[in-house]
Design goal:
By secondary structure, this protein is α+β, with helices and mostly antiparallel strands. Strands 1-2-3-4-5-7-6 form a seven-stranded mixed beta sheet. A hairpin with a 7-residue loop joins strand 6 and strand 7. The radius of gyration is 15 Å and the shape is globular.
Length: about 160
């Protein structure tokens, strides 16, 4: 299930364990800056340690991508058939790890999977579109987790 496709970096996807916290926090904090840079702005950055609980990281299932040497290089969370978190270590970008994590979560979800991508996050938008998600609408409001910043998000959906 969920085999590596040509050009993708081999990783094992497994359920998150408490021992993964440090790696997951490091990955989030590095990749979140890239996410914000072209959308809301890096001034809106908050660490995972500060936002994991209030933004519901553990409200659903969380899985990590682990390299053969045991290093965690990404993670994905799925809650109520919504991909709520998907981050890859910037040192591992463009290796297919995000796609593998996304497919893994989608396989475990229901017939309709949703997500929100910040407007300006072209790499994430392209990933979701490549994996079959369609843009449903774009909404503006407050940035979840740091409501002092305005943000716009693309609401996306995949129907299996």
């Amino acid at each position: 299930m969920n085999p590596t496709r040509p050009g993708e970096h081999p990783v094992r996807i497994r359920r998150y364990e408490d021992r993964d916290w440090e790696a997951v926090a490091r990955i989030h904090d590095a990749a979140r800056l890239d996410e914000l840079r072209d959308s809301v702005g890096v001034e809106a950055f908050l660490t995972l340690e500060r936002t994991a609980e209030t933004e519901g990281l553990f409200d659903g299932e969380v899985w990590v991508a682990e390299e053969p040497d045991g290093g965690v290089v990404g993670f994905v969370a799925l809650a109520d058939d919504e991909v709520t978190w998907l981050y890859v270590d910037p040192a591992a970008y463009r290796r297919g790890i995000g796609a593998r994590l996304l497919r893994y979560a989608v396989e475990r979800g229901g017939p309709r999977i949703g997500t929100t991508v910040l407007v300006g996050n072209a790499a994430a938008l392209a990933l979701y579109e490549r994996e079959g998600f369609a843009l449903v609408e774009t909404k503006s409001g407050k940035l979840e987790g740091n409501e002092s910043f305005a943000a716009s998000g693309h609401i996306m959906e995949l129907r299996k």
